[in-house]
TrEMBL record:
InterPro entries: 6-PGluconate_DH-like_C_sf, NAD(P)-bd_dom_sf, UDP-Glc/GDP-Man, UDP-Glc/GDP-Man_DH_C, UDP-Glc/GDP-Man_DH_C_sf, UDP-Glc/GDP-Man_DH_dimer, UDP-Glc/GDP-Man_DH_N, UDPglc_DH_bac. NAD(+) binds at residues 30, 35, 86, 122, 155, 266, 331. It catalyses: UDP-alpha-D-glucose + 2 NAD(+) + H2O = UDP-alpha-D-glucuronate + 2 NADH + 3 H(+). It comes from the Bacteria. Belongs to the UDP-glucose/GDP-mannose dehydrogenase family. This is UDP-glucose 6-dehydrogenase.
């Protein structure tokens, strides 16, 4: 099979590399010249574990290449994937489909032969039909089908997720398109990974429903965590006890500083807007969006409390700024709310993150960046754990407390045990949904 992949971001690049590893010939296209220059030079523009090795292997094998030239990428392509961004549209919460429709129009004007135009981007129900209209209007003679193939990979574990998915969802309208999609995913089909074939609308809806459900699960446990703090229960024990129920499951039940990232915030907002548009209110999702914002503000107040009711002139070391470990993605990370609140309140903030600097330096102005947690904690009044990178999971707490001027910790990923923090010399320790001291 020959595949063209439009967009080489977190989804497009991982999908393109993995499809080429299936044995398909893949040409990845991006309008961003800097990205294409890097990719052509063998560099991966994002941080995703294992992607560099897999990319090099498939480039070497002659199955994977990168270009800005759409025409050469589309030549002989059986399928053309659209994997461009669908961010929140400014002002109204809708998914911004500008990039999707622009890509569809460019494809229409460039493609010559039959191909399936596959939307991998997360798009509201009805978008694939609009893609069909856009292509038809721009090139009435083109022979094509559309397909919806939402992506479920998680940043940080993207290759594993793509190669061993819980399921692949394919929305199609014709047998011909179904056959092309089946051939593309045959390596997964042969290994018994479920491939669910649906209509276009159901495929589009599955993606939003799945993300809204996961965001709800996280938000639910964060709300239970707040209740634990008031009642003396311990959220770690509660999560464990709840998650052992097979009907519930233990994933996405970890209390923390609220969900962030490139998907949940924008997809929950878009789903709420879809509901409003068709007068079918998404009351649960709307509440989840509101409560998730409140979680972050509640934690800002916790930080202020532990700092003695004011950030003024406090030195704070923040460990982790990316929205989760093993990615450099900063989109909607909780750090973007918590850090500016401290800086705005007069704190001197030092940041440590294994991959966050490239994106974070512009997003978090007025902070110092350091490489080492102990260096960052030197003379500090407070250490805050915001992202549970492995590097921050096994700190020598006594050493950390020993270099601080007033050893206090806000552990918003519940990595450590309050009793261990106390034994190590921390005079105050606050976390999420457990008994704090100090
Ligand atoms: P991204 O912003 O990282 O990448 C998008 C890329 O598309 C950019 O490199 C941009 O330059 C390029 N692009 C835009 N218009 C183009 C055009 N006309 N021609 C060529 N290139 C073009 O986005 P992402 O995180 O990869 O997300 C892509 C889609 O996948 C979104 O709809 C997102 O919701 C969805 N998704 C993302 C994830 C994730 O974890 N990031 C997971 C599942 C689904």
């Amino acid at each position: 099979m020959k595949i063209a992949m439009i967009g080489t971001g977190y989804v497009g690049l991982v999908s393109g590399v993995c499809f080429s590893d299936f044995g398909h010939h893949v040409v990845c296209v991006d309008q961003d010249q800097t990205k294409i220059d890097k990719l052509q030079a063998g560099q991966v523009p994002i941080f995703e574990p294992g992607l560099d090795v897999l990319m090099a292997k498939n480039v070497e094998a002659g199955r994977l290449s990168f270009t800005r030239d759409l025409a050469s990428a589309l030549e002989g392509a059986d399928a053309i994937f659209i994997a461009v961004g669908t961010p929140t549209r400014r002002g109204d919460g809708h998914a911004d489909l500008t990039y999707v429709f622009a890509a569809a129009e460019e494809i229409a004007k460039t493609a010559k032969d039959y191909a399936v135009i596959v939307t991998k981007s997360t798009v509201p129900v009805g978008t694939n039909r609009k893609v069909h209209e856009v292509v038809k209007a721009a090139n009435p003679d083109l022979d094509f089908d559309v397909a919806s193939n939402p992506e479920f990979l998680r940043e940080g574990a993207a290759i594993e997720d793509f190669m061993k998915p819980d399921r692949v969802v394919v929305g199609v309208e014709t047998e011909r398109a179904a056959k092309v999609m089946e051939d593309i995913y045959r390596p997964l089909y042969l290994r018994d990974f479920p491939i669910l074939t649906t209509d276009l609308e159901s495929a589009e809806m599955i993606k939003y429903a799945a993300n809204a459900f996961l965001a709800t699960k996280i938000t639910f446990i964060n709300e239970i965590a707040a209740l634990c703090e008031k009642t003396g229960a311990d959220i770690k024990k509660v999560s464990k006890g709840v998650g052992l129920d097979g009907r519930i499951g233990n994933k996405f039940l970890h209390a923390g500083p609220g969900y962030g990232g490139s998907c949940f915030p924008k997809d929950t907002k878009a789903l709420a807007r879809i509901g409003q548009d068709v007068a079918s209110p998404m009351a649960i999702t709307e509440t989840v969006i509101r409560v998730n914002e409140e979680v972050k503000h509640r934690l800002v107040e916790k930080l202020r409390d532990v700092c003695g009711n004011s950030f003024k002139d406090k030195t704070v070391a923040v460990l982790g700024v990316t929205f989760k470990p093993n990615t450099d993605d900063m989109r909607d990370a909780p750090s973007l709310t918590l850090v500016p609140a401290m800086v705005g309140g007069g704190a001197k903030v030092r940041l440590v993150d294994p991959q966050g600097y490239r994106e974070g330096q512009d997003l978090l102005p007025g902070c110092d960046w350091l490489d080492d947690p102990y260096e960052a904690a030197k003379g500090a009044d407070l250490v805050v754990i915001l992202t549970e990178w492995n590097e921050f999971r096994a700190l020598d707490l006594s050493r950390l407390a020993g270099v601080m001027s007033a050893p206090k910790m806000a552990d918003f990923r519940n990595v450590y045990d309050p009793s261990d923090a106390k034994a190590a010399g921390f005079e105050a320790y606050v976390s999420v949904g457990r008994s704090d001291y100090g």
